[in-house]
Every structure is written in C-alpha cells, then in structure tokens.
Amino acid sequence: MLVVGGGPSGLTVANRLSEDPSVNVLLLEAGPFDQGEQNVEVPFFVGDTIGSTYDWNLTTTAQTYLDGNTRALPQGRVLGGGTILNAMLWNRGGRGDYDDWVTLGNPGWGWDDMLPYFMRVGHCHILHVLR
C-alpha cells in the first residue's frame, strides 16, 4: 500500500494499514524530518516554524477586502504535517458534522461510529522510522 503525505491523516492511515502483518506500507512525504528543534517540540513556540523549511510557504491571491494584500497559508511540508506548525495540535469536528455525513448517505461515518477511532488517536505510539 502507498500512502502519500505524512501529516496527521497520512500517518494515521499508514499506521492502521500496518496493523495487518500481511500488508507492506510505504509512506511518502515531500518534506524533511524535523530535527527536534525547540520550536518544533515545545508548544510555547507555536508559529515559529511558519515560513520555515517545514512550511510549503503558500500565500493566497490578493484579497479585495484586505486592500489587495495576500496572506500566508501555512501548510506543513514535513513528517508530521501541520502539527509541526501549530504546536502539535489538531481537532475533530462536532457531533453534528459527522452525523450529517450519515444523513447525506454515508453510513458508518456518524459520531458514534467514529468515536472509537477518535479515542485511539489519543494514545501516543512511538514509531521507529528510517531516516
């Protein structure tokens, strides 16, 4: 199996796939590994990595209601993705968001269906990776 992108979602998918010993998983990430810098590992320094080598350094087009100015659009380009840029934080949607998916014809994607997976994400597993 090939997983493209080593952000929180890609890492989660790769980890889940690797639980089956008969499956080989290759995770591809365009960015580098972080080097354990304080501005990556200490949440106090949130924002310090925006504009760094760990960021795709994207900007919006000129915005009419910002007097023609652009804005940075931080997106992680590093193993760990956007969590490297935002103090290792992420959040999930509200109950209604997931339950609406079911209403739209996607059984198995409601809050109660997803909650066991949300709970699994809350545990830290140290992975051994090749550098």
Question: What can you see in these coordinates?
Answer:
This protein has 131 residues and is α+β, with helices and mostly antiparallel strands. Helices cover 27% and strands 8% of the residues. The protein has four helices and four strands, in the order E-H-E-H-E-E-H-H. The strands form two sheets. A two-stranded parallel sheet has the order 1-2. Strand 1, helix 1 and strand 2 form a beta-alpha-beta unit. The radius of gyration is 18 Å and the shape is globular. It starts with a strand and ends in a 10-residue tail after the last helix.
Question: How large is the radius of gyration?
Answer: 18 Å
Order of helices and strands: EHEHEEHH
Largest sheet: 2 strands, parallel
Strand percent estimate: 5-15%
Unreliable stretches (pLDDT < 50, length at least 5) are none
Helix and strand layout, with pairings?
Layout lengths: L1 E3 L3 H11 L7 E3 L9 H4 L16 E2 L12 E2 L21 H9 L7 H11 L10
Parallel strand pairs: 1-2
Antiparallel strand pairs: 3-4
Descriptors:
27% helix, globular, alpha+beta, 131 residues, two-stranded parallel sheet, 4 helices, two-stranded antiparallel ribbon, 4 strands
Concise account of the structure shown:
The protein is of the alpha+beta class and 131 residues long. The protein has helices spanning 8-18, 38-41, 95-103, 111-121, and strands at residues 2-4, 26-28, 58-59, 72-73. The protein has four helices and four strands; from the N terminus they run βαβαββαα.
